[in-house]
Amino acid sequence: MNNHIWRPLYVVLVIIAFFLVLRYFLVPQDFGVHGVNFTYGYHRAGDINDWQAVPIKYRGREFCNECHPDNAAANASSKHAAIQCENCHGPAFDHPEAPEKLILDTSRDLCLRCHAALHTPSSQRSLIKGIDPDTHNPAIPCSDCHNPHKPDLEDMQ
Amino acid sequence: MRCSRRDLLAMALTTTAAAILPVTAFRFLSQAEVKVALADPALRWGFLVDTEKCVGCGLCVKACKLENETPYDAPVTRTWVERYIITKDDQTHIDSPRAARDGFTDPRIRGEAFDPAEVTKSFFVPKLCNQCDSPPCVQVCPVGATYQTLDGVVLIDRKWCIGCGYCIMACPYGVRFFHPVHKVAEKCNFCYHRISQGLKPACVQACPFGAREICNLKDANDPITRIIMTQRVAVTKDEYGTKPQVFYIGLDRNVR
Amino acid sequence: MESMIVHGLEWTTKELFVYPNEYIYWSIQIVMYPYMTGLVAGAFVLSSLYHVFGQKDLKELARFSLVFSLALLPTALLPLLFHLQQPLRGIYVMLTPHFTSAIAAFGIVFSTYAAIVLSEIWFVYRQYFVEQTLALQGQPGPGLVIKRRLYQLLTLGAYDISAPALVKDKKAVKILAATGIPVACFLHGYAGFIFGSVKANALWMSPLMPVIFIMSAVVSGIALCMLTYIVIMEWKKLRSTPAQDTDVAQVSRITVMEEVIAKASRYLIGFLVAAIALELLDLIFRGYTAMKSWDILRFVLYQKDFVNIFILQYGLGNLLPFILLILPRLTIRRTVIALLLILYGVFMMRWNVVIGGQAFSLSFAGFMHYHLPLLPHSAETFKEGLLGALTVVSIPFILFWLINMIVPSLTTDQETP
Questions:
Q1: SS3 of residue B45 by DSSP
Q2: Chains with 3 or more CB pairs closer than 8 angstroms to A?
Q3: Crossing angle, helix C209-239 and helix C163-196, to 10 degrees?
Q4: Of B61, C23, C182, C351, which shows the fewest CB atoms inside 10 Å?
Q5: Does A20 touch chain C (CB under 8 A)?
């Protein structure tokens, strides 16, 4: 092996050895096959915990009901019962600590999500009463006349 | 207390056997197989979309963007809703303005109005990551930054993704994109932080019409799983062999 | 406030229905990447034609193209780094390679290939390194001392330049050149595999893709080497004043060059025909089988991208140079025009694959248009714009100039020992 033709090979081997040492220190210890197989489960195990630790923003109506039972009950008996509080009031995060107040969306656009008249015969959208936003009292907020928690037309404000 | 030699021998043998057993039990399993055996095999997340119920309000998209911190005004999203209008001349018109973040409020598609008499079908189709059983996006990741968890959700490691975009190219459903802030691949993960804590995904919770439901496909008593098991459901783009785990009621041949 | 950039928004326009997250994610640098790796592979194959198959008349070109393929090597890496959203994490491909991905093979194949090219150059130039080290011994001045140290390092301590040792060098070169051909083909074939294996993309998915890529790679590599060779030789001719250069030497050099070029262009035509045949086969097959995607593919191929594909790529980039090269009485000037057109044609082929593959939506119901950022106004529009592409193109020439100062590859036999 004293032949000079092996010299480039030695250089390559030294580089590989150096790289393997580098790899040992740079790759997280929990990297490996943690799923069903190498194709679909080769990853850093700790990432699952990272994802599980993402803070929750939308708390759900039960959370709102704890402090606002009157509003929750009013809405629950209305045609809007299916709509979550946070769809209009915004995500609760850690309310009432942070944020102290939620930002209520009172725009016409919010109501138009469901109540803009569309021709969608093969969807249950066609069962919802719709208006043409350009002709139905444009520029007036919907909540001036309609109570979102009691949307029935008999209860117009 | 009397202890014969035979008792002692028997006791010694059982203790040794008991000590060895756990080791031998796993000896012939590979590392990965052991992990599968140890993990909870009773959980596999599935999703059911009822397109008949969807009214195109887009509250799911809004909730998703806020819950998952996808920049609200960036034209990328983890979930979206498509509107289909099929006319008598068998033309399919599709749109999803702002990914339906603000819902559908305009009867026109890209400025084109449709005579109701000419419209044969029109409906909405919510889209999200299919959490495929054979995810091509995971197969092509060069660094192992995206993977399938044992409960079937495909996640992306934001600390390890190099941002090559190969997974985005490999997904036939176009659910992946580059996160505008984190600069890594991003997509729906059924709100993994929520479902891991027993909550429903933000879009499921936000939907007032029950058009979106999540379930455990391994639990035959789960009411949603029962629907998937007993009713006629379809998946999108079956031909790619990705085995999607998002099932649809009322899918149409025109749905892309 | 963190910067917010929707990748692809800058240069993508959408038409009809396109899924919300769809953009031209793979842009100019991914066009450059297979183009540059193709040049690397092609240059190496050309040099191997001499070393392995003993094509003596390619000797002049062989040494040059070997060194040139070394200069091209980093530019196969550069487009990828420019393209990555997290360029600093590029090394992860080597750290945790996920081998079910075609890209994961890149690190290993690329390093193997680099090792082969470097070793081969070492064996070709070892004698020169030793002679330089000996000649510079005892010379004064810090510049020459550094130069001597460099050559000393390059010899790797192997000073034996006896005849038997040099025979061993020759043999090693031959073996390395032979192993290098499949590795070079693999390096490029897998670049084709990266595209051909994407089942989500109707235009890319084809088992022919890797072979098509190798063929056009060899075509572009040979063309670039020939072109650079001609330019350098002409430049040398201009620089050498008539007083220093005898008429005989000049004439002999021109004939040598013309012979080399004539021979190389025959290989070029062969590979060109193979590349076009495969591409047409792919196209015909798609039309004949007319799968679900054919409606939109046909629209893209025959209408949206017609000029790019049939006029610029096949017409201007393939057919015209083919005619120019097979017409009798081939002159150097005509060869140069043909070579430029071929290089352009292969570039357009890469463009039409990479950009063309993203010209239609995965929904098959809409289109996307790519607008190459010309003037950069952000890091992203530089990296993935015209200037980024030009940077990638210019670097091999700068590198070649640098490498050539240490490892001269343009001297003819009379000048080298």
A1: strand
A2: B, C
A3: 130
A4: C182
A5: no
Inter-chain touch A123–B123, beta carbons under 8 Å:
yes
| pTM across the whole model | 0.90
For B144, the closest of A42, A48, A87 (CB atoms) is: A42
Residue count of chain B, please give it.
256
**Cβ contact C168–A19 (<8 Å):** no
Which residues partner with B178 through β-bridges? B185
Which chain A residues touch C126 with a CB distance below 8 Å? Answer: 4
E strand or H helix at B56:
none
**DSSP structure class, residue C385:** S
Residue B20 confidence (pLDDT)? 47
pLDDT at position B98: 97
Q: What is the dihedral of CA C332, C334, C338, C343, to 10 degrees?
A: 50
For tokens 């789960």, name the residue.
Answer: B222
Q: Both ends of chain C: CA-CA distance in Å?
A: 64
A33 CB near a chain C CB, below 8 Å? no
In Å, how far is A18's CA from the nearest CA of chain B? 20
Antiparallel, parallel or unpaired: β B246-249 and B45-50 = parallel
Domain boundaries, chain A: 4-52, 61-155
Interchain CB contact of B248 with A (< 8 Å)? no
Could you tell me how many CB contacts below 8 A there are between chain A and chain B? 169
- Is a pLDDT exceeding 60 seen at residue B16? no
**Token representation of residue C309:** 């594909």
Is B96 in Cβ contact with C85 (below 8 Å)? Answer: no
> B184 vs C85: CB contact, 8 Å cut-off?
yes
Contacts of A123 in chain B (CB under 8 A): 51-52, 54-56, 122-124
- Contact status, residue B55 vs residue B124, Cβ threshold 8 Å: yes
Q: Does A26 touch chain B (CB under 8 A)?
A: no
Query: What does the radius of gyration of chain A's CA atoms come to, in whole angstroms?
Result: 30
Chain C: residue whose CA lies nearest to B84: C17
Comparison of pLDDT for C238 and A98, the residue scoring more: A98
State whether A43 and B160 contact (CB < 8 Å): yes
Q: What is the pLDDT along chain C (417 residues), one digit of tens a residue?
A: 457 899 999 999 999 999 999 999 999 999 999 999 888 888 888 888 888 887 776 777 888 889 988 998 888 889 999 999 999 999 999 999 999 999 998 888 889 999 999 999 999 999 999 999 999 988 888 889 999 999 999 999 899 999 999 999 999 999 999 999 888 888 888 889 999 999 999 999 999 999 999 898 889 988 988 898 888 778 877 876 555 556 666 666 677 778 888 888 888 999 999 999 999 999 999 999 999 999 999 999 999 999 999 999 999 999 999 999 999 888 889 999 999 999 999 999 999 999 999 999 999 999 999 999 999 999 999 999 999 999 999 999 999 999 988 888 876 544 443
- Provide the shortest C-alpha distance from residue C23 to chain B (in Å): 9
